[in-house]
Amino acid sequence: MSKPSPSNWVRTWIEIDRRSLFFNFRYFQECAKGARVMAMIKSNAYGHGLALIAKLLAKRQETSDKRQGVSRVWFGVDSITEAVRLRKEKITNPILVLGYTLPRRLKEAAQENITITISHFEGLRELAKLKKRPRFHIKIDSGMHRQGFQLADMPRLIGVLKKNRLVPEGIYSHLAMPQNAAFSQKQIGIFKKCLALLRDNGIAPQYIHFNKTEGIVRFPQSCFNMVRLGIGLYGYYPGRKLPIRPVLAWKTIVAEVKDVKKRECVSYDLTERLRRDSVIAILPIGYWHGFDRSLSSIGEVLIHGKRAKVLGRVTMDMTMVDVTDINHGVSKMKVKIGDEVVLVGRQGREYISADEVADKIGTTAYEVLTRINPLIYKVSV
């Protein structure tokens, strides 16, 4: 028996295709050639739902990979707040906080068995003050110049670690531009030098990770013993087609339909004047939900398997679209209140990807997905 549609009780929702999620995980797991996989679920799992994605992956591993002796999936989050939320959701998998952890929350990290990132000397000093210390990974700045210790910092870093008996569980860095092979190889070289200096001084981190999604594919020789799987887990990959599947579909409904005469204007600021008598559908989503205001007058959605153009300004909670051609098309199907609308995803033969939306507004699929309001209802299908 099929589940009732979410449209029976919510006006907009996210559908998570768990089979595609698992397929993508397995694909990159094979590409990583035996390295552990850290599933990046930071920033609300790139808009897909922090707890939902974590539970799906944790449960999947309990029922399949565990029998095959595969190590438990790690989860990568941005903040201690995200990590603690996962613990409250009964997620027991290893968790790494990649962002800065406030000193007053270090004890909490230790209590909740959460691993943190240390990327500067101030962080080491705060860690050294504690009797019970959380596990930590050292972040190396290999050329992106965001977080991390630089190569020149290594002698001092080694001294501080030894003096305070601080033993890093892991060490990692981050690719700045994977499509630039020469610069990436330079980064890999710097990272290896830092790792060698640590090892030469008796410091041997258990987990070594350098590659994110693109790196797993482009530089498999640098997967070390762990990789961080981000956007690829969700079915997107910058710059190249891979046999992976988008996991997220974002849907809403038609909330109202009306006829509007030629030369009338639609939405705020009267920016769009109709060139014909039109049928307009009002959708109960807007930029508060994450449907970007830059899609005003250029965005498209899917209704009855056809594309419908956004008319005028996207407003805070509502968006108007042109369904004239759908209503007057050969299908003879009239758009009505309650009809399903696809903002990102497939309907019939048509498909709107996060990449397509991103191209229209001059950004990336990362931003399109992570901007989706986290309060929107999510369901796995």
UniProtKB/TrEMBL annotation:
Task: Tell me which cofactor or cofactors this protein depends on.
Answer: pyridoxal 5'-phosphate
Task: Please name the pathway.
Answer: Amino-acid biosynthesis; D-alanine biosynthesis; D-alanine from L-alanine: step 1/1
The EC designation for this entry is: 5.1.1.1
Q: Which residues form the signal peptide?
A: none
Positions of the Alanine racemase C-terminal domain: 247-378
GO molecular function terms here? alanine racemase activity; pyridoxal phosphate binding
List the catalytic residues.
Answer: K42 (proton acceptor), Y268 (proton acceptor)
User: NCBIfam families, from UniProt?
Assistant: alr
- Name the UniProt record assigns to this protein: Alanine racemase
The protein's organism comes out as Candidatus Sungbacteria bacterium RIFCSPHIGHO2_02_FULL_49_12
